[in-house]
Amino acid sequence: MNPFRIIVMFFIFVINLYAQDINLLTNIENRQKQSLNGQWKIIIDPYETGYYNYRYQPRTDGYFENRKPKDKSELVEYDFDNSEELTVPGDWNTQKEKLFLYEGTIWYKKSFQYKKKNNTRSFLYFGAVNYEAIVYVNGKKLGEHVGGFTPFNFEATNELVEGENFVVVKVDNKRKREGVPTLNTDWWNYGGITRDVDLIDVPDTFIKDYFLQLKKNSLNEIFGWVQLEGKETLQEIKIEIPEVRKTIKIKTDENGFAEFHFSVDLKLWSPENPKTYTIKIISQTDSIEDKIGFRSIDTRGNELLLNGKSIFLRGISLHEEAPFGGGRANSEKDADTLLNWAKQLGCNFVRLAHYPHNEKMIRKAEQLGLLVWAEIPVYWTILWENKDVLANAEKQLTEMITRDKNRAPVIIWSVANETPVGQTRYNFLYHLIKTAKELDQTRLITAATEIHSEKNKITLSDSLSNLLDVIGVNEYIGWYGGTAEDAPKTSWESKFNKPLIISEFGADAKFNLHGDAHDRFTEEYQANVYANQIEMLKKIPFLRGMSPWILTDFRSPRRPLPGIQDMYNRKGLISDKGEKKQAFYTLQNFYRKMVK
Ligand code: GCB
User: Distance of alpha carbon 195 from its chain centroid, rounded?
Assistant: First the structure.
């Protein structure tokens, strides 16, 4: 074998290793758990004194020990119990003014009671921590996690004791050139334990994960698998859908794995009828329930087919930015407000940009009948040639798909946003797309690409589109280039026989700032951009969806213009205070006419 081939094979081996080695529990909502949300003690540690000694070597007696002086003479220079607090889940930036712009380490500590149970294993589960987390229980390190928007868990069975226990998490949100995302983004780097923390109890051998979806190209055949974790790998498993009186039995192999497929007549999930079925998975040692909706998604030439029928995605993009004042959204109420605004707009689709949003958003979209584009933060210009960066992106992609693969609304996995055309980026994204396809054969793959246009003519030509099922394009005619009126004069051509989603267009507007349709930052300007974009979009023959930028104003350090932006990207159709701008109604009107 030539040396180049060996290097490539090694690279692929490393990638696959990462792709599979996440050991994530799924369907947390329906497991036995104790919430560790609430007030956590914190130590702000910009110099990482709690981690490194004065020679910058990792300390063996770091803050994770949660040490108390043995007597009055012992020197201990920290004390969690007399320190300040932060609420979990929540970003730190919007909880304390002094942390608004903080990027660095904060140590979190929480004490909790635990009752040991027989034949039970316990896992500490974090919905997300931005960006790096090192987790300790009772002074012992459980593990580390990188990536700010995906869940992870560590087993704590052997470290937990009867009675009082403590968990310490070192959270570091410093941006890094080799991070995913990298140093440069157009959103706020909210740090902290931003999503729920749970201690999950499962039986010694438990149902770790499962896949249960309609088989590709079928409307009545279900296909899937179950994965047990633990010593009793050989078990009989029952899968039940009580509402249609369907039960099947399967046997797991020595790896605790079983595949299945069966036919069943079901009402399909759709935006008009977001029907889900209770599913029971019962093994000899464990059982778990879920509510799953069944639908198919496919393409045929330029068409996008939901349940076999052509569909147009009336969408909007959104950040995971809390309504009414900002910060990371993390509650069911946040999800309810944001997604109901999308419904009022007339949407059947949301693009959850630019990273995996919390699971409550996906479950709410499932209830409300909103189709979802989910994406990872491979954004703008990450280090395409760095294999650790690729492994990191692979891992985030794997975590996202692992968590959400049974959720009906998710129809599209997006692997990147506005990345530069070139061979190294192509190779990088090729691997991500391959992984996504291996993990989930039922959904479509996209990426938000950029346009390269001559005057009044846009030709889709990014070779990455060869690898995509659906082409995403971001364009800002009338804001970053040209005038709004250029849009209707622009014609679109494609080298690919595939559906197109305009994944972004838009313009900044400050709520209640009025003027001429060509006065920047006025509501009139934004509404005019929308009106002209709509005229253009109506004429693109292969357009099958759109998700303009963006539902609400969101914080961004790149947007300093005083009195107008004040550190907010103002492209929202709704302000950070929940006020609807004119363009909201322009788009609503268009979407309403579409369904008539
Ligand atoms: C884009 C990016 C998005 C930005 C937006 C803007 O193309 O994808 O993250 O926020 O433009 O407002 O410039």
Answer: 12
- Ligand 1 centre and the CA of 354: distance in Å? 10
Query: In sequence order, which residues have a C-beta less than 8 Å from that of residue 239 and are 6 or more positions away?
Result: 212, 226, 247, 248, 249, 250, 260, 279, 280, 281, 282
Q: What pLDDT score does 326 carry?
A: 83
Residue 186 C-alpha to ligand 1 middle, in angstroms?
6
- Which tokens go with 277? 């079925």
With 0-12 / 13-18 / 19 or more C-beta atoms within 10 angstroms meaning exposed / middle / buried, residue 455 is exposed
Q: What is the arrangement of strands in the sheet containing 453-454, beginning at the earlier edge strand?
A: 453-454, 457-460, 491-494
**Residue 594 tokens, joined:** 């579409």
Ligand 1 centroid from CA 319, angstroms: 11
Residue 151 neighbours by CB under 8 Å, 6+ apart: 24, 28, 125, 126, 127, 128, 195, 359, 399, 403
Helix (H) or strand (E) holding 140: strand 140-146
User: Phi/psi at 374 (nearest 5 deg)?
Assistant: -110, 145
How far does the centroid of ligand 1 lie from the alpha carbon of residue 318, in Å? 11
What are the φ and ψ backbone dihedral angles of 52, each rounded to 5 degrees? -110, 145
- pTM of the full structure: 0.96
Nearest-CA residue for ligand 1 atom 7 is: 474
Task: Give every residue of the chain whose pLDDT is below 70, as ranges.
Answer: 1-21
- List, for residues 539-557, the tens digit of each pLDDT value: 999 999 999 999 999 999 9
Cα–Cα dist 581/553, whole Å: 11
In a mutational test of the pocket of ligand 1, which residue from 569, 570, 573 has the highest number of ligand atoms less than 8 Å from its CB?
569
d(CA 276, CA 366): 9
Count of residues making up the chain: 596
